[in-house]
Amino acid sequence: AGVFWKHGIFDNSPLTKFVNNQVKGRVVKRKVSFGTVDANNADYVIYDYNATNTLPSDYVDSAIASASIPFAFPQLVRGDKVLIDGGSVWNLDLSSAVRRCKEIVDDESDIIVDMILCSNNKVKIVENIKEFSTLENFMRGREIMSFYEGMDEIEKSRILYPKVNWRYVVAPSEELSESIIPLDFSKDHLDKCFAVGKKDAINAVKLGEGGNYEVIKEYAKRSRRGENVNLADMIEDKIIQRNATLMSS
Asked: Gene3D superfamilies given for it (predicted)?
């Protein structure tokens, strides 16, 4: 029914209620920006928030709008704008992070950026794609786009802002979702995501500043060539090499 009579297949009102309950009484302790797209004209719209003792009334709605995948979730109507997932046009908005930092410092060399990539670590081979539904086809397209664009955005940003310290990049070293539609919010699935994220963050620190990024970049390069490579193994090998180098020096 959601396909034809609603604004999205899934109802996100329980999510809105849950998030509002979680942030009730809390404050925004740092600069935050949410990227969305106005579906009317395809403009990329950013909502900036500063540290404050009172949570802005539209804060939660902006956060949810920034992740409202078209077709799957309802859009957010704000004034004359119809807001959907910012990832529809820009999957990794690093420029906004640098821009907000430059509100505090003048020299880009004083800016340190850490990144977390959320896309799966590879585009898995699908055997039954001819049987996919409309939503599954849409999500498959997003999966492919996300895999290839993530590293490209980092490379472009490093060229655009050469003085910025691009410190740590954390990316999933193993598959997070077994489904083509990554909308599994079960406890088991979320526990797995948290465990993988914690492990990958620890390994990124072990590899030192920029170390994990170089491994991920090499992994993406070899994957695009069609090589059957395992990111987790590559990271582990690099950690062993780094430890050996540190011990011998």
From this structure: Cytosolic phospholipase A2 catalytic domain (3.40.1090.10)
Residue whose token pair is 């302790």: 29
* 108 neighbors 164 (Cβ within 8 angstroms): yes
Structure-token pair, residue 187: 């406890």
Q: Domain coordinates of the chain in residue numbers? A: 1-90, 91-249
Give the side-chain half-sphere CA count within 13 A for 164: 24
Mean pLDDT by 10 residues, the chain (249 residues): 56 86 87 96 96 90 91 89 91 93 97 88 70 75 71 88 96 78 75 94 97 93 86 96 91
Residue at token pair 């410190």: 167
End-to-end CA separation in angstroms for the chain: 65
The pTM is what?
A: 0.80
